[in-house]
């Protein structure tokens, strides 16, 4: 896709760290007032579950679906969690 610019970066993760890979459909969710739910709210949600040790991707799906009045989302919903553990 030559007409688009993409950012690239490198980060280090340690044993026990989590890496989330997701599509923009996760946070570009229309709310009742017509506003988008937004990236910052998605990050807050991930942090909430991350610190509770109760991270269940199905719970995130259910929460975001409720933000959209339990209807079919307008965009794709892709979310992957990778946890680095020792072999």
Molecular structure report:
- The chain has 87 residues and is α+β, with helices and mostly antiparallel strands.
- Helices cover 29% and strands 11% of the residues.
- The chain has helices at 39-52, 57-67; strands spanning 18-22, 79-83.
- The chain has a two-stranded antiparallel sheet with strand order 1-2.
- The longest helix is centred in the middle third of the chain and has 14 residues, at 39-52.
- The protein starts with 17 loop residues before the first strand and ends with a strand.
- Output mean pLDDT: 81
- The number of helical elements comes to 2
Please indicate the percent range of residues in DSSP E strands (runs of 2 or more). 5-15%
Low-confidence stretches: none
| Amino- and carboxy-terminal Cα gap | 37 Å
Total beta strands: 2
Question: Can you summarize this structure?
Answer:
With 87 residues, the protein is an alpha+beta fold. It has helices at residues 39-52, 57-67; strands at 18-22, 79-83.
Record the SSE blueprint.
Blueprint: E1 18-22, H1 39-52, H2 57-67, E2 79-83
Key traits:
globular, 2 strands, alpha+beta, 87 residues
